[in-house]
Each structure stands twice: as C-alpha cells, then as structure tokens.
Amino acid sequence: MEQLPTFKNTDTTTEAEKSVQSSLLDRLGSDFMFSSDQKSECINVILNCKTKGDFIDYLFRDAEFKSEFSRKLSKEIELNASTKCIRNSDSYLFSKNYDDLKQFSFQNVMQEMSQCQPDLLKFLLAVAVPSNRIGKPVSSLLPKLGLIYSILMSSRFHELSRLQRVVSTVLMEEQVHEKVFDRLQKLGVSTSPDVCSRLLDDFGGHFNNEVIALLHAGKSFRFIGDNVNFTVGVKSERQDSKPQVCNWFASCLITQTLTFPDLLDIPQGRTRDLDVSHFLPTANDERKLKDDYKVLISRIAKTFLPHLTFLYEGQPKHILGQYSHYYKQKNVVMPSKVLPLNEQNYADCVKILSEYEDTLENIFRQAGIDLDHARPIHIGGDQLTRERFSGAKSLKSGCFSAKERFDHLSPITFELWHTAMNFLKLIFAQLYNKCGSDKGTIEGERVLRQRDNVKEDVKNNYDQDKDFFLSFLKAYVVEALCSFFGMNTKLDNPTKHIFPPDLSKAERKNWVEKTLDEFLDQYVFAQKSDASLSQMHEIEERRAVPLNVTLPGGGQIL
Q1: What is the average pLDDT score of the chain?
Q2: Is 311 contained in some domain?
Q3: Neighbours of 281 (CB within 10 A)
C-alpha cells in the first residue's frame, strides 16, 4: 500500500496551519470498503427513495460517506486545475503583454472560471450568496470572485498573474510605497516591485502606438507642457549643504476632439480694424448667460431650500454650449518625458523643442507619414511657456533645415489653465478688503466663520479661497431667493410668488422661467439690460473710425 506523505509539526506550527495540513492529507486518503450491512442498507434506501436528493441526504448523514464525497470532489477540482487551467495561452490569466493588460476584464475571468472550475464557483457562491438573494443582480460579485480565482490560480501556476499585474499597474499610478507591493504580494494580490519596474519599461514602448493609431484615423494632437518644481532636501542642513530647488519640465500629448477645418491658417484680418462689438457681449450672449444663471440658481435652491425645489424642474442637467457633443468624447492623453530642463532658460527651451521635434520624427516615421508634408503640430503651455518657446523658436529661425528651425511646431499658444485663478484674483481684488470687516463683506464673513486659511494671496491659497468664495456666493443666492419668495428661514414656505397648483408640465416650466427671469432682473441684471428683454432685437450702427498715431520722429501709423 502506498505510503501517504506526512507533515512535520513543530512548536511554531499554528492551529490554522495544522487544519490546512489535515485537509490536504484528507484528499490523499484511500477509498473505504463497503460492509455487507452497508450494502444492504443502501439498497433498501434506494428502493424507498423518491428522488435522488433523498438518497444524497441519507449518504450525507454518514460521516464516512460525506468525507469520501468531499475527497472525490476535491480531486475533481484538482484535475480541472491541472488539465484545463494550464499555464499557456489557453488561460485568460496567462496573457500579460501591454494590450492584454489594457483590455483586462473580470467578465472574461469569470467566464473561464465557470467553464474550467464550475464546482469551485458553486461553492464560492454558496458562501457569498444566501438562498433568499438568489435572482438578484450579481455584478458586484464578479470582481471579488475573479480576484479569488486569480489568486488561487497564481498560487498553483505563477505564470497566471495577469490580474496581479493589473493591480500593480494601478498601485504604480497611485505612487504607493514599495512596502505596499511587498505586503500585497504575500496575499497574492500584486506582483513584486521588480516586476513593476519591468512593467514600466514595457509600457514606455507603447505610447507611440496610441499616437500612430490616431494619425491613421485622421485625428490630430498637440503638445502641452509646464514646469515641475520640487525640492530635494538634505538630512543635515549646513552652510555648504542646503535643500536644492529643481525646475524640470513635463509634457504630454493630447488628442484634439474638436477641429475647425473651415478656418484658414492665414490671418482673417487686422485686429486694428475691429470695433468694440467684436469683444462686448451681444443681446444673444447676455440672454444665454441669463439662461445659464437659471440653471445654477435652481441647483442652489434644490440643495438648500426644500420648498423651492420646483425651480429645478425642467432645467437641463448640464449647461450646454455650441460644442457640447464634442466634450463627451474622451481625450487620449499620453505622457511624454519629464526633462531636467528649466523653461526660464532659453538654452533649455531650445532643448525642449528639439526633444519635441525628435518625438514627432519618431512617431511619423513609424506611422509611415512624411513629417515635412504633414500639418504642423500645435504646442502650448502657460503664458510664460508660450513666451519662452516663441523666443527659442526665433533664435533658431536662421537654421538650414525645417527640423532645426522647429517648423513642425506651430502655432505656439497659451493654455487656459489659470483662467479660473485669474478670475478669482480679479474678484478678490475688487471685493476683498482686509481692513474692512463689516457684516456681509468677504473679510467680515471670513472672520465670523473663522476661516483662517483664506488669504488675500489667491495664487498661493487658491483651493481655500475658491471654496470660501463659492460658499459666500451661494449664501447670497439663498438670501436673495428667501427675500424674493418671502421666506424668513430656509425651511419656511414661500409667501410671495407662490407656485400655482394644477398646472400642466409645459405651464409649470413657463411659470418657472418667467419667475426666474423676474428674479434675475431684480437682483442680477440692470433693469434696461438686453438680457432682461423678453424679445431680442439687436440694432447696431457700426462705423469704423480711423485712428492716427503720430510718432516722435514725425511719422504716422494709420
């Protein structure tokens, strides 16, 4: 008779380890023999049972039968793991290249589990889902069951680590500490830090593939970049050893979801010939602004005034514009190299643009497109970046080749990254007075609410100033709505402009629109503003007035 393996228990062996060892040994046990009495009893039970379930219930009352059934089922699961879930491309968990990791899906993991390990799936579901919940949606269970299956299969075959690599990629994106990888690797959830490093190297070679696919699809893209400032500290600061501030430059490629093929690349006219009507809002612009205000006010009413929620009825969920349907498309963002270069130095700016040119040359060569005959690539940054890049390009304007002149990088524009900050700075410059703490002012409310993190310097306290100003503005809107509808507190019922009952849906919407128009005319817009007119008629007389400028030398500019 074959001798069964044994486990050597030591003083450090825990009870949990002993129970696991016992379960493993039980799988290797030999078949037990039927006695004559057991055979006779089984025959009688079979003759008297109406269903197979009755016979199974009888067998499970016997400990030997139940143990034998469990052992046979364990061997069946082991056989499925060794023959069906093997370490080759037949398993969904085996493929680990860039495209496979990118397209990972728990749906496919569960499909493999249901086909290769149906018994294991049934046992896990018996533990996770009680009988009274059968028939309800199970979509939330798929990641949990898929994780358990992936951990078990990677324990048997370490090559089946597709899920672990996906988890490691997510952890790398969150920049977690290496100790997290080490601890999760012991649980079978992620890979080691060394494998993560190799994953980074593998991913780095696939960024160009995204851009090449976009080029073949007729899409365009642009470079954007900005400085990255960080400080390298020292453990013991001395006169000759102090923290060092590093100014590097980070860039990325962003696909363009919106194009204007009808616009030409040549100037459409001279800016000096434009009159003020091209810059000031028209009646239609003010009317659109008023409609947008209604949406924002209705959201505030829904949040803070429970008896004015009817103002939100019929309002659009999102403020739509001319190109809103383009914004539903996700921009593909591909990070580029982080260069140890300072954009405040023209020599470094030249090196940055040279790196852009090298990247474009590599991408277009792999795509099989002639870069010299392609449309120039738009690059942008903040106002400082635009100024430096334009100056660096001017320095190279006398070079012989298009690559050296940076002809493939055009136009150079500034991005609207700081628009919200500049707008908030303008508001604080007009409304914030640190010396004035009267009731109702920004400074007065700041002191009353003890918001010590709100500072006059918006640039260095943007998040805190923005949060406070939004609260400040919403408070004024709530106060104005309460005054307009005759409410003493937020929980009172309106006593003025009472919402009439028994109106149709269209009539309810018209009443809300008319009431909000009246509210805006009273509290926001001037009484004779174009936006307050129910009908929009715009009649303007435009006349160009020549401007003559006499220079100190006697010359003139027309």
Answers
A1: 83
A2: no
A3: 13
Is the domain of 367 the same as that of 405? yes
**Directed axis angle between helix 118-128 and helix 141-156, to 10°?**
130
Are 415 and 380 spatial neighbours (Cβ–Cβ below 8 Å)?
A: yes
Amino acid at 520: L
Residue 35 falls inside a structural domain: yes
Which domain covers residue 353, as residue numbers?
Answer: 209-234+244-257+329-414
Which stretch, 3-7, 305-309, 549-553, has highest mean pLDDT?
305-309
Q: Is residue 92 part of a domain?
A: no
Judge residue 331's burial from the number of C-beta atoms within 10 Å of its C-beta, 0-12 exposed, 13-18 middle, 19 or more buried: exposed
Here the tokens at position 439 are 């009731």
Return the closest-CA partner of residue 427 out of 476, 489, 388: 476
Taking every pair of Cα atoms in the chain, the longest distance, rounded to a whole number of angstroms, is 129
362 and 216 in a common domain: yes
Q: Write phi, then psi, for 545 (nearest 5 degrees).
A: -110, 115
Q: Which of 332, 363, 335, 173 is nearest to 252 (CA)?
A: 335
Q: What are the phi and psi torsion angles at 234 (to 5°)?
A: -125, 150
- Same domain? 42 vs 23: yes
Residues 123 and 185 in one domain: yes
Q: Which tens digits make up the pLDDT trace of 328-380? A: 778 888 888 899 999 989 999 999 999 999 999 999 998 899 998 888 899 99
CA distance 336 to 362: 13
